[in-house]
């Protein structure tokens, strides 16, 4: 049973693929999600429908979503990345929207009143004060994406899921673990790192419990 | 910014002029048909109960709100033809609780506009030091603090310093002292008064506090239900209120307000007090400028346990006024 079913090199390659899927999907989600969150704050009447659609996407079972995307993107990394991107979108959009929305209104008004342009108000006042929220959104999305990315193997995207699928079909626990354990550790690792980043970017004066 | 060749020399125009300006939201007029001219170097107070349209009027001036009717001119130029950010950089803006940026230090808060305008770092530093000293905060002690580490009064001082950062000719203040406790409010008002006299800028202050209005305003514009009811000097407003609403603002404080708006010179002109001859000066008399209010005079007498005030002009003592003279002058005023 033990045999050389999985080599270290295989695990490392799968891990790198996994990271690549996660990284590309997250980057897309941030690049699209944050501006979308800002836009929803401007056009508040759209926020309800848009957030509802993003929530609905979250409820589609991952395997089904990947299946739906095969006709559109074929087999490989593309459908997986697109699915991960869709899942990652909601936490980022929602946290951007609520985070920017809770910024002290007097500070925003003062910034406009002393002559900051809308862009400067956003970059100098709103985003810095909402950073903890924005980072929390990215953190949630990252952990989610790392976990869901294991299903990428289902459409041939590679990643740690490949090992898990292989282990399941062989009913070979060590092979399953070779994929599942790094995936779990990866999620924990990102969660911890982002927890620190979140705290680090929180402006000193806004920290609830100072160290 | 476009250059307007036809623009007349700014000095001949009021700093701020509203022509039948108003603002309407959801069919409700927050301010309506406001005609107003604020002169260069004047401190103008917009005064009225909450919901009377004074903040709306203030925001029409710096275009935080756009006029739904009429127009606004700044130094003779139609404000709608100006870039809003550019316009506001020529006007400081102070909010009720300072509106400071909680994530930045005092230094960064005050220096934000100079920084965005690309000032050299050393110049920003010097300017922030200068402004902190101007508003009575030590740069060493307060420069690196965050807004949450300041008292309400200190936050307000920082707010004022920030509004003055790029030396705008006009400064707008919306209820600047309202969030403070009475003692520090009075204190800050006095400091603001001397600051405003030194700076010679055009100030527009929104308040619902009649004492603040009388103390700080060269002229007061009384607002009620979105309309500007009367614009006049504090003394004029007290003595000749245009209607019962304006009169009702003073209520039981009428005499105190008269004391505050009558100066020693006014009392002398009404032949109160005794002329002072060389050699007959009372050694225990308190010396005050003829422009000092009767209120200040009485207060000084009380504090110094004296009985006589000498009004002192550039050429020596003009007149001696007893406490009785001061009180009689108040009733006569």
Describe this structure in words.
The complex is a heterodimer of chains A (211) and B (333). Chain A is mainly α. Helix content of chain A is 80%, strand content 0%. The model of chain A has no long low-confidence stretch (mean pLDDT 89). By secondary structure, chain B is an alpha/beta fold. Chain B is 38% helix and 23% strand. Chain B has helices at residues 54-61, 84-89, 106-116, 121-134, 139-142, 152-163, 182-199, 210-216, 234-239, 244-250, 254-261, 264-269, 294-304, 323-332, and strands spanning 16-25, 28-38, 43-47, 69-74, 77-78, 91-94, 170-174, 202-207, 219-224, 227-232, 286-288, 308-313, 316-322. The N and C termini of chain B lie far apart (51 Å). Chain A binds chain B through residues 104, 106-107, 109-117, 120, 124-125, 128-129, 203-206, and chain B through 62, 64, 85-89, 91-93, 95-104, 112-113, 116, 146-149, 159, 162-163, 165, 172.
List keywords for this structure.
heterodimer, A: 211 residues, 8 helices, B: 333 residues, alpha/beta, four-stranded antiparallel sheet, globular
Question: How are the secondary structure elements laid out?
Answer:
The complex is a heterodimer of chains A (211) and B (333).
Chain A: H1 8-42, H2 44-59, H3 62-73, H4 77-101, H5 105-113, H6 118-148, H7 160-170, H8 173-201
Helix pairs in contact in A: 1-2, 1-4, 1-6, 1-7, 1-8, 2-4, 3-4, 4-6, 5-6, 6-8, 7-8
Chain B: E1 16-25, E2 28-38, E3 43-47, H1 54-61, E4 69-74, E5 77-78, H2 84-89, E6 91-94, H3 106-116, H4 121-134, H5 139-142, H6 152-163, E7 170-174, H7 182-199, E8 202-207, H8 210-216, E9 219-224, E10 227-232, H9 234-239, H10 244-250, H11 254-261, H12 264-269, E11 286-288, H13 294-304, E12 308-313, E13 316-322, H14 323-332
Parallel strand pairs in B: 3-8, 3-9, 6-7, 7-8, 11-12
Antiparallel strand pairs in B: 1-2, 1-4, 4-5, 9-10, 12-13
Helix pairs in contact in B: 3-4, 3-6, 4-6, 13-14
């Amino acid at each position: 049973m033990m045999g050389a079913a999985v080599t270290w090199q295989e695990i490392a390659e799968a891990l790198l693929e996994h990271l690549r899927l996660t990284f590309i999907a997250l980057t897309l989600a941030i690049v699209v999600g944050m501006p979308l969150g800002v836009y929803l704050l401007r056009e508040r009447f759209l926020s309800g429908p848009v957030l509802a659609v993003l929530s609905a996407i979250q409820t589609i079972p991952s395997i089904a979503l990947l299946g739906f995307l095969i006709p559109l993107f074929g087999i490989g990394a593309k459908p997986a990345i697109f699915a991960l991107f869709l899942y990652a979108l909601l936490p980022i959009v929602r946290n951007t929207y609520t985070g920017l929305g809770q910024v002290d209104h007097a500070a925003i008004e003062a910034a406009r009143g002393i002559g900051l342009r809308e862009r400067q108000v956003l970059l100098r006042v709103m985003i810095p004060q909402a950073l903890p929220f924005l980072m929390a959104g990215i953190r949630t999305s990252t952990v989610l994406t790392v976990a869901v990315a294991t299903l990428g193997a289902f459409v041939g995207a590679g990643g740690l899921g490949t090992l898990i699928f292989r282990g399941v079909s062989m009913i070979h626990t060590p092979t399953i673990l070779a994929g599942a354990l790094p995936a779990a550790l990866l999620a924990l690792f990102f969660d911890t790192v982002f927890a620190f980043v979140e705290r680090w970017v929180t402006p000193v004066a806004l920290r609830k419990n100072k160290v | 910014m476009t250059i307007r060749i036809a623009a007349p020399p700014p000095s001949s125009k009021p700093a701020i002029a509203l022509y039948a300006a108003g603002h309407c939201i959801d069919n409700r007029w927050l301010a309506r048909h406001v005609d107003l001219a604020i002169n260069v170097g004047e401190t103008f107070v917009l005064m009225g109960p909450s919901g009377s349209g004074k903040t709306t009027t203030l925001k029409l001036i710096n275009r935080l709100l756009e006029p739904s009717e009429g127009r606004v001119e700044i130094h003779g130029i139609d404000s709608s033809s100006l870039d809003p950010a550019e316009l506001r950089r020529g006007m400081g803006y102070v909010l009720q609780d300072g509106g400071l940026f909680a994530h930045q230090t005092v230094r960064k808060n005050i220096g934000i506009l100079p920084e965005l305008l690309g000032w050299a770092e050393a110049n920003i530093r010097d300017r922030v030091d200068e402004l902190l000293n101007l508003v009575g905060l030590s740069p060493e002690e307060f420069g690196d603090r965050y807004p949450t580490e300041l008292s309400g009064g200190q936050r307000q001082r920082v707010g004022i310093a920030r509004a003055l950062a790029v030396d705008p000719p006009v400064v707008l203040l919306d209820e600047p002292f309202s969030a403070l406790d009475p003692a520090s409010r009075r204190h800050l008002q006095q400091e603001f008064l001397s600051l405003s006299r030194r700076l010679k800028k055009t100030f527009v202050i929104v308040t619902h506090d009649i004492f603040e209005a009388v103390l700080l305003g060269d002229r007061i514009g009384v607002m009620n239900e979105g309309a500007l009811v009367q614009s006049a000097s504090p003394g004029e407003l007290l003595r000749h209120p245009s209607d019962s609403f304006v009169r009702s603002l003073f209520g039981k404080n009428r005499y105190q307000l008269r004391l505050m708006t009558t100066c020693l010179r006014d009392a002398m002109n009404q032949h109160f007090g005794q002329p002072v001859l060389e050699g007959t000066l009372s050694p225990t008399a308190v010396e005050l400028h003829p422009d000092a209010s009767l209120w200040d005079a009485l207060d000084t007498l009380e504090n110094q346990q004296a009985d006589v005030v000498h009004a002192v002009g550039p050429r020596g003592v003009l007149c001696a006024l007893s406490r009785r003279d001061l009180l009689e002058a108040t009733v006569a005023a």
